[in-house]
Amino acid sequence: MTQVPNYSSICILRLSAIGDVCHAVSAVQAIQKAHPNAKVTWVMGKIEAMLLADLPGVELVIFDKKEGKAAFKKLKNTFKGKQFDVLLNMQVALRAGFVARCIPAKVKIGFDWARSKELHSLFINKRIAPQKEAHVLEGFKEFAGAIGVDDYTPTWRMPYNAQDQNKADELLGQEYLANKLFVISPAASKAQRNWLPERYAVLADYAHEQGFNVALTGGPTELEVNLANNIIKHSNSPILNLVGKTKLKELLCVLKRADLVLAPDTGPAHMAVTVGTPVVGLYAHSNPARTGPYLYQDYVVEVYHQNLLEQTGKTAQQVPWGTRVKGDDLMSQITTDSVKTMFDHVVNKEGLE
After folding, report:
1. What is the pTM assigned to this prediction?
2. How is the chain split into domains, by residue range?
3. How far apart are CA 58 and CA 258, in angstroms?
4. Per-10-residue mean pLDDT, the chain, length 353
5. At 61, is the secondary structure helix, strand, or coil?
6. CB–CB of 260/242 below 8 Å?
7. Among 27, 98, 167, 225, whose CB has the most other CB atoms within 10 angstroms?
8. Residue 70: CB partners within 8 Å, gap ≥ 6?
9. Looking at domain 9-146, which of 3.50.50.60, 3.40.390.30, 1.10.357.10, 3.40.50.2000 is its CATH number?
């Protein structure tokens, strides 16, 4: 049996996005448990750091891509005179590769050959073991395994405090806290991944009929604000609109209070997973077996596989893992009846009657 090195300093590189850093938290915390004496530093994006600030025992170093070349210079200055025992480069994007160049480490571990893209191989000197048909989180688990962490069941200790929870509770109000709560987080980063507002409205009305209070969550962007307004316009039931009203940690606490979340392929779906809230995920463009809500993949409603077969003539097992399908209207193929059926299934299975 190979002896595991006694690491004193470990650097994690995963800049984005919200869902992916949520997946990575479980790996980082497993690493901390296995290497309690190691100082752990995590280089991540500015927005992601807003969610993970004060992550227990982890030093966060922010890389703000909007700063351009200055961000790389700042990173070099931050790590000047330092040397990590190991860097876990958990991102294949070219920008992340150049970030990795600014991080001094004896060993730089990256993805296996099959998942190496955008010149990723130039910025590492060791690889994780290859995996077949793995969820994104499973890939991050393999990074932990590469430095001696035995296989583990993912758990999360997300960093929020009483003030964050109190603010979330204040926004929800006593009426919403006293009853079952159905949260719809309707917007993904790209409009084509969003379900139709009138269909979200149908589910809001359906949940209300089943005795749930309904709330909308999201950021302050024009896309998210307009989508929320359109959902409310099409709905016949009271909906609490929290879109643009929560910081990321407050949003996390709202999701923690929820009994059930409905969301497309978006960060809040994975945030909900970290606080143990069941998620009904809506997927069309990406394989939910790779990017779906990790603990609730059985609750996904998807049209990905049928579109992949139609566009390529092949199944997910016959194309490169992670292959996406294209089309602006794919989400419209997800019917309200199919989502209602899944809603009923989850309510029954989770004991939310």
Report:
1. 0.96
2. 9-146, 162-349
3. 28
4. 79 98 98 97 98 98 97 97 98 97 97 94 96 95 96 96 98 96 96 97 98 98 97 98 98 98 98 98 98 98 98 96 95 98 98 96
5. strand
6. no
7. 27
8. none
9. 3.40.50.2000
Distance separating alpha carbons of residues 304 and 273, to the nearest angstrom: 21
pLDDT, residue 3, reads 65
Q: Domain spanning 162-349 has what CATH number?
A: 3.40.50.2000
Residue 82: Cβ within 10 Å count: 12
DSSP conformational letter for 130: P
With a CB cutoff of 8 Å and minimum separation 6, the contacts of 13 are 42, 43, 87, 88, 89, 90, 91, 96, 99, 100, 103
Beta strands in 81-226 (DSSP E): 84-89, 105-110, 126-127, 181-184, 213-216
Q: How many CA atoms lie within 13 A of 139 on its CB side?
A: 28
Residue 311, judged by CB atoms within 10 A of its CB (0-12, 13-18, 19+), counts as middle
Is 162-349 the same fold as 9-146?
yes
**Distance spanning both ends of the chain, measured CA to CA:** 51
What DSSP string describes 213-250? EEEE---SSHHHHHHHHHHHHH-SS-EEE-TTS--HHH
Length reported for the chain: 353
Taking the alpha carbons of 114, 115, 118, 120 in that order, is the dihedral positive or negative? negative
Beta-carbon contacts of residue 274 (< 8 Å; ≥ 6 apart): 22, 25, 156, 158, 252
Look at residue 2 in the predicted model and tell me its pLDDT. Answer: 52
Residue 183, sorted as left (phi over 0), alpha (psi -120 to 50) or beta, turns out to be beta
Distance of alpha carbon 15 from alpha carbon 100, whole angstroms:
11
